[in-house]
Amino acid sequence: MKVFLFPLGHVLLYPGTSKPLHIFEPRYLKMVQDSIEQRVPIAIGFVDDPQKPLRYEAGQPLGFVRDVVGYGHPQIIETRPDGTLLILLPGNGKAKLGRLLDDSLPYLVCEAEKIEEDMTISNETSPSYVVLQKLLLNWLQNNIPDSRAREEFRRHLKTPEQVVGCVAAYLVADPDMQQMILEENLLEEKINLLSGMIGRGRDT
To answer: What is the DSSP letter of 198?
Structure first.
């Protein structure tokens, strides 16, 4: 598959979640429009050091971005008078980046291999998953004061994939740990990792 890459410092997109983004740079405005017209997904790539210049060459892998990414097809929420966009990027899936396909465009076009995840949860892991659900609901109660917005958020938490993605996005502060969760392909192992991370954080 082909993806348009949006390299961002310490920002990730989990399958089953969505991320609002304010797009203002001309190259990324074009990327969003081309993505919609060509039906090519946009992937968010975790950049370790956003201050370093991005060096790349067609036919080569990108050395400045983690190679496991979340991707999705953008939805334009608002086109502002100054031409900037507010978009919502849903996490439609996960992929591993390959080589850069084209370095002639103002944005990055990469090959990518779709990653299928195992979404099963065993009886042994179910109690840990229930604890994560409760922690996320507590987070919603404490951090989203608007009751309608909170209820809208809750209505979209329909699958374990969505719950686990939201827990990783909102309850884990360390971006490297967040990336570790993204790279794990077993939902059960994601739950175990999150339980350990959050448990350590509550104990300190």
So the answer is: H
